[in-house]
## 1
Amino acid sequence: MRRSKGTVLVALAIAGTIGALAYPVIVSYPNRNATAAAALTGDTVTTQWGPLTPSDRDLIVRVRLAGLWEGPAGQQALERSSDKVMQEAANHLIVGHADLDKRVRIIAAKLGVELPNQPNAQQQGWLDEMTAASPAEYNQVWANLLRSAHGKIFPDIATVRNSTRNTLVRQLASDANQTVLDHITILEKTGAVDFQKIAEGSVSGTASPTGPPPPVAGQSPASPPAAEPSTNPDVSSSVSPGGPGVVNTNRPDPEELNDDQGQTPQVQ
C-alpha cells in the first residue's frame, strides 16, 4: 500500500513539474490565449481582423527578422564604404526597415505574435561575412548578400498578400512589398550585383504551354499585331505614386492598439 501511495505521489510530482515548465511557454505571448496555443500546434487563430494562419505568423516574424540584420548591415556600409551609391543603398535599408519594423511590432502586438529580438544564425552569418570582407571585395559581398535575401522573400510576401484573410497581415504584406522592391532596386543600382549568380540560385522558368515557343538564337520572332487606340479613353486609374528607388515612409500607421486595460503598447 505504501508503494502504491508513493507511486501516485511521484506521478503527481512529475505532472506538476511538466506543468510548471510548460506554463511560461504558454503564457509568454503578448495576447496569449488562442494565439499561444496555435503557435505551438501550427493552427489557425480566429481574430477580429480575420483568421491568422501559420503562414501569416511566419511573414510577421520574417519581416521583424529582416530588420534585425539589414538595419545593422546598412549602418556598417555607411561606415565602411565610401561609394556614394552604396551609401545611398545603405540609407534606404536603414530608413525602410526602421519604418517597416515599427509597423510589424504594432501589428504583432495586436495579433499576439511573439517576435524575435536577435537575427537568426543564418543572418548573423551574413553579417559576419560582410564584416570579414576585405575593402576591395566589400561592396560586392554586401550588395549580393542583401540582394539575394530580398529576392528570396519577395515572392513569399506576394503569396501571403494574395492568400491572407487577415486585414492587418494584408496591410503588412503590402507595406513590405513596397519596401522590399525599393531595396531590390537600390541594391541593383550599386552595380555590384551578380545577376548570373542570383539566376543560378533561382528556379528556372519555362515557356508557357499555351503561349509561343521559346525564342531560337539567330531567328527573329514574328512582329506582334499593331496596338489599336482605345475607343473609351476615359479612365480613372493612374500610376502608383513615387518612382523606383523611392520608399514611401509617409504611409498611414496601423491603427493604434488598445489592450484589455485600455493601454497602448509602446513601440520603441
## 2
Amino acid sequence: MSVPTNNAGPGSGALPPVPEGAVMVTLKIRRFSPEDPGKAGWASFEVPCLPTDRLLNLLTYVKGYLDGTLTFRRSCAHGVCGSDAMVINGVNRLACKVLMRDMLQKDGKNTTVTIAPLRGLPVEKDLVVDMEPFFSAYRQIKPFLMTSGQAPTRERIQSQADRARYDDTTKCILCACCTESCPVYWADGSYFGPAAIVNAHRFIFDSRDEGAGERMDILNGVDGVDGVWRCRTTFNCTDACPRGIKVTQAITEVKRALLFNRKAVVR
C-alpha cells in the first residue's frame, strides 16, 4: 500500500523559504506504525536540498515541516553515535554521513532517494528498529577489559606496537550497519554478527586483557561448528561499515586465533 504524499501532521504549517541554489528532491520513505500495521507502505516527500546538505537534514525537514509523525533515530549528526543507521538506496549507511551532492542526479533529472529501516531487526516504527537482538550479541562476547589480581594504581602500560595491533577495531560505533548487511545474520538468529566479533577482536588482541580464551570459547560456538565459523566472507560487512573498519579481516583474524592459538597470532 502506498501512503499519500506529504502527509499533514504536527509542524505542517507555513514552509520556510527555499534557499537559493536548492533543488527539489524526492524522499521515498518506508513507513510503518504498530497502531495500524495494515497501512505500512511507502510515502514520498518533496524536499528542498542544497548540495552541502546531509540526508539527515532532509529527514529533519520532513519531520519538522511536512509530517511530524515520521520517526527515526538521530543524535550527534557527526557519524559518532551511530544512531541514524538506515538503508539508503539499498545500502546500509548513516544518514548524517550521506552528503547530498553525491546523491543528486548529474543530468538535472529529479533525484529520488529511497530510505528504509535496517534489515534483520524488528521494525518498531518507520525507520526505528528494535536493537536489542544486536546488543544482546554484543554483550555475549563480554566487551570489557578482563584482568586478574590487584588493579594498578596508575594506568596499565601498553606499547605503541601492542596498541596498534587492534587499533582498527576500536573504531566501531555500534551502528549495526555491518551486522544488518550480513545475509548469514538475516538467516540465522544464533549468529553473533560482524559487530560483535569486531568488538571481541578488540579485546582478544589487547595485550592487557586476560579473557581472550573465554571469549574465543564463546565465539567458537558449539563443537567448533557455529559461532564465528558461520561467516561466509561475503565482504558485505566491510562495504557497509561507515568507519572504514576492515571487518572481514578482523573476523578472519579471530578465526586464525582460534585455529593457531592466540599467542602465536598476537606476538
## 3
Amino acid sequence: MFRGQFVSVTRIAFVIVTVVFVVLAGRELSASIRTASISIVAERIERGETVADEVVTKYAVRSVDVVDGHYCRSDIVAAGVTLVLAQLDRQNVNVNYDAWAVAASSAREYLRYALSCMPTNSNFWLRLAAVQSTIAEEPVAIAGMMKRSVVLAPHDQVMILTRFYFWNDFTDATLAAAKSALDSDLTTMLKLGDRCRVNATIKEISPQLRPIFDQTWTSVGEAATARFRQRCSE
C-alpha cells in the first residue's frame, strides 16, 4: 500500500516538473519568436552592415516589446541595447531636437531595464553613463555608473579602451567625481595594455583629460611607458 502511494506521489511530481519545463520552454520559444526580427537587425548592425535609418527606427521602437514582455534573456536584452543606441547615434540634436530627445530618453530607460536584468554587465553601465552625459551633465551620477563599469571589468582591455573614449569626452566635473575609477583605468591601460592598441587609442586626448593622463603616465614610470615609443606596424 505504501509503495503504491509512493509511486503515485512520484508520478505526480514527475508530471508537475514536466509541465513546468514545458511552460518554461514555451515561454522561451515565444520570446524568441516575438523578438526574432529585433535580434536579426541588431546582428546586422553589430556586423557593420548598412542598415537604413527607417529600419533602425522601426525596430528600436519595437524594443519596447522586450520591456513589456519582461524578457530578461541576455541575447534578447543585448539586441535591444544595440538598437536603441544605434537609433540615438543617428539623431542630430541640432537638426531635430525632439527626435533626439525621444531617442535619448528611450535609450536611457531601456538601459535601466537592461541593468535590472543584468546588473553585473560592465558595458551596460558604461553605455548608461554615456547616454546620461548626453542628456544632462550629472557628474556624481555619471561617475557612479562609470565606477560600476570599472569594478565589473577592471582588466578587460576592450572595455578599458572603450571607456577611454568616453573618459576623453567627459567634463572636468565628471572626471573629478570619478577620479579613482579613472586612475584605475589609465594605470591598467598603461601598465598592461597592448602597446599598439593603446597607442592608437591615445592619439587624441582632450584638454580636460590631458593633465590627468600625463600625471598617470608619470606615475606608472619609465619602465612601463618606454614601450609606447616603439613603432607599430600599419
